[in-house]
Amino acid sequence: MEIEIKCIACGYGKHSVVNNFSTTINQGDILCFLGPNGVGKTTLFKSIMGLLPLLDGQVLIDGTDLKKISRKKFASLIGYVPQTHSTPFAFQALDVVLMGSTARLNAFSNPSKSDYIKAHEVMEQLSIERFADKIFTELSGGERQMVMIARALMQEPAFIMLDEPTASLDFGNQAKVLKELKTLSNQGIGIAMTTHVPEHAFLCGGKAVLFTPGGHALSGPVKEILTEKNLEKAYGLPVAVIEDRWHNRKMIHCTPVI
Ligand SMILES: Nc1ncnc2c1ncn2[C@@H]1O[C@H](COP(=O)(O)OP(=O)(O)OP(=O)(O)O)[C@@H](O)[C@H]1O
Known about the structure:
Domain ABC transporter: 3-238
Protein name: ABC transporter ATP-binding protein
GO molecular function: ATP binding; ATP hydrolysis activity
InterPro entries: AAA+_ATPase (IPR003593), ABC_transporter-like_ATP-bd (IPR003439), ABC_transporter-like_CS (IPR017871), Metal_Ion_Import_ABC (IPR050153), P-loop_NTPase (IPR027417)
Bound molecules: adenosine-5'-triphosphate
Pfam family, one: ABC_tran
CATH class: Alpha Beta
CATH topology: Rossmann fold
Strand order of the largest sheet: 6-7-8-3-9-10
Oligomer: single chain
Order of helices and strands: EEEHEEHEHHHEHEHEEHHEE
């Protein structure tokens, strides 16, 4: 299964932010989107998710135009973890995770016993089982982030799109989320995520899309795209990309030169 993004333009009203952008996401891929603030990564993700109307182009899932896919079917194909998440109601974290299963339910049906079992399993997988009974709005930003990833996993989607999934996480939880995303991609789920940390893209392996300030996108294997030259072009300052070895493991560090 693949998501084909074909020459899309997206933005607000008549104002386009991203123009003529194309890429393909296959199941099992990890595709990291990088680029400076305001270049249009969130706008692009919202447009792919159908939350903003496309100004031009098409998003095809296995050749079928997104517009022809029902919302219910779509939810079973792509899970979405937005950048900010708030809920006006005092739901328990477990309820928020269970909301992921509503994609598969009818309008008036309640989650089944197996949905509850699965929700607990997913929370355990992400080491957040201890938050199950806590009120979502009373969790920290990072804890809420993990709950939202669990909610996306409840949908059992073929793809997950995550907008800055590591943004408010501590050092350890950032690594835990990246490791989890790698595991999910090894299990065949296609992952698309935005990040402001080039090292995270190197840790994930896979492919990268790097937007430069003019909105031009470079895409390809991470090592070919996140070069010193391209990163300097994107962020407007020299960047050192250093290959290293640690206990026989290849590591890549990425540091701005200030
Ligand atoms: N609701 C909106 N209406 C009009 N313009 C918007 C709206 N939301 C965002 N924009 C504009 O669209 C542009 C792209 O914003 P977007 O949030 O997609 O960037 P981004 O690359 O995700 O940024 P960041 O890395 O800071 O999250 C920005 O210039 C922003 O001001």
